[in-house]
């Protein structure tokens, strides 16, 4: 991977520093989240039906969600900007493929993926950077490929930064994020909003989108 821009280096270094603790915290995090599992299952069914290519989890961290997607019968691999996270993922799931890389400059040919999961992985991108991320997602997705976005929802307020435990992150109005994805060439398939559970601060947003023919 080429040298990272400073804002991505900040994110990578922050996650490198907490990788082991983070992996311990999230390893079983889906067990008590039936709505999250449901939207992941819906994504998996749509991606299987589209049959447009493999699935990439972008911002895969220690790989627990990549493994969950594999268990949903997807041909899946993971990409993350943090080398330490990728090392943990490879150690925990040696049967899966994990690569160090940046979501806004993927080492993939055009239209090669059937699906992308971005599970709380664009949350650290400044608002002005989001269109370039979505443009890259659209570039590598085949027509009719499926995109799943998971993010912190703003609860009726505007996009706003907050003090994420690892590094600065942003909460988004779900309509605004859906609009930016639409401008990049995606059509909305469905959405799910989940209220915060005990120990969570913010509403969670989920968008299922489909890549449109250019």
Plain-language structure description:
By secondary structure, the chain is an alpha/beta fold. It has one domain (6-211): Vaccinia Virus protein VP39 (Rossmann fold). Helices cover 36% and strands 26% of the residues. The protein has 6 helices and 9 strands; from the N terminus they run ααβαβαββαβββαββ. The protein has helices at residues 6-26, 34-50, 64-71, 83-92, 130-140, 174-183; strands at 55-58, 76-80, 97-100, 113-119, 141-152, 160-162, 169-171, 186-194, 204-211. The strands form 2 sheets. A 7-stranded mixed β-sheet has the order 3-2-1-4-5-9-8, sandwiched between helices. Helix 3 (64-71) links the parallel strand 1 (55-58) and strand 2. The longest helix has 21 residues, at 6-26. 39% of the residues are buried.
Strands, total number: 9
Strand order of the largest sheet: 3-2-1-4-5-9-8
Largest sheet: 7 strands, mixed
Sum up the overall morphology in one term.
Answer: globular
CATH topology: Rossmann fold
Strand content: 25-35%
The number of distinct structural domains comes to: 1
Order of helices and strands: HHEHEHEEHEEEHEE
Radius of gyration: 16 Å
CATH 2nd-level architecture:
3-Layer(aba) Sandwich
Distance between the termini: 29 Å
Using the coordinates above, name the CATH class: Alpha Beta
| Overall mean pLDDT | 91
User: Unreliable segments (pLDDT under 50, ≥5 consecutive)?
Assistant: none
GO molecular function, one term: methyltransferase activity
Protein name: Methyltransferase
Keywords: Methyltransferase, Transferase
Pfam families: Methyltransf_25
């Amino acid at each position: 991977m080429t040298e990272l821009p400073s804002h991505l280096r900040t994110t990578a270094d922050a996650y490198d520093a907490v990788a082991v603790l983070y992996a311990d915290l999230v390893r079983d995090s889906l067990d008590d989240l039936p709505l999250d599992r449901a939207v992941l299952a819906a994504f998996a069914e749509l991606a299987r039906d589209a049959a447009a290519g493999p699935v990439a989890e972008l911002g895969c961290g220690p790989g627990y969600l990549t493994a969950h997607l594999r268990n949903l019968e997807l041909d899946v691999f993971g990409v993350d900007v943090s080398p330490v996270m990728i090392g943990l993922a490879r150690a925990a799931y040696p049967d899966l493929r994990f690569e160090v890389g940046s979501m806004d400059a993927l080492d993939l040919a055009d239209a090669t993926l059937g699906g992308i999961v971005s599970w709380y992985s664009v949350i650290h991108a400044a608002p002005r950077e989001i269109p370039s991320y979505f443009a890259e997602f659209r570039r590598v997705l085949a027509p009719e490929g499926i995109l799943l976005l998971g993010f912190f929802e703003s609860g009726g307020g505007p996009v706003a930064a907050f003090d994420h435990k690892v590094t600065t992150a942003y909460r988004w109005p779900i309509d605004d994020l859906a609009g930016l994805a639409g401008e990049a060439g995606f059509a909305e398939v469905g959405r799910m909003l989940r209220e915060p559970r005990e120990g969570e601060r913010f509403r969670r947003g989920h968008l299922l989108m489909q890549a449109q023919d250019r």
